[in-house]
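Reading a protein record of the kind used here takes only a little practice. The integers have meaning only within a learned vocabulary of local backbone shapes. With that in mind, consider the following protein and its fold in token form:
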Amino acid sequence: MTTATKAKTRTAPKTAPKTASKTAPKTASKTTTAPKAQGATELLRADHKLVSGLFAEYEKTRSAAKKKTLVNRICLELTVHAQVEEEIFYPAVKKALKDKTLVPEATVEHATLKELIEQVEGVAPDGEMFDAKIKVMSEYVKHHVKEEQNEMFPKANATKLDMMQLGADIAARKEELMAEKGGATT
């Protein structure tokens, strides 16, 4: 949508029919470029959802070129996600919860995922063993996400941590890392 169209949509005349005026604000809100501020757990959940969708897309495709593109994107997203969790989210949660199990377990899971990423990143899909590695990575990520979302996130949200500030810190660092690694921010 062009800027002129956005401006037109936002400044619809007051005499427009009710149906047009009801749709104008929705259209305008969808076209704004400033991302909505998110709390840390909402931002991390959005990452989980994105990666889950990429894995689902991988399972459906038969094209080696598309698989390679998807795997590279999955690896980038997981690498950046793990790094922002380890640098920002996990230390804050560990301190707030005085945690000695959840964060260490999640960190070990990240190490295992990093090993799988090393095995497939930048490699051309070459058959069933490659597909098996992606399948195992997908299942491992699902397990990790389930633990984070069902155990760590609720406990973190119950603390006095400023989740909006943590979310802003995570978003800023994620943007930096994506720029460094040549990925698009989402």
Summary: Residues 64-97 form the longest helix (34 residues). The chain has one domain: 40-181. Residues 40-181 form one domain. The mean pLDDT is 84.
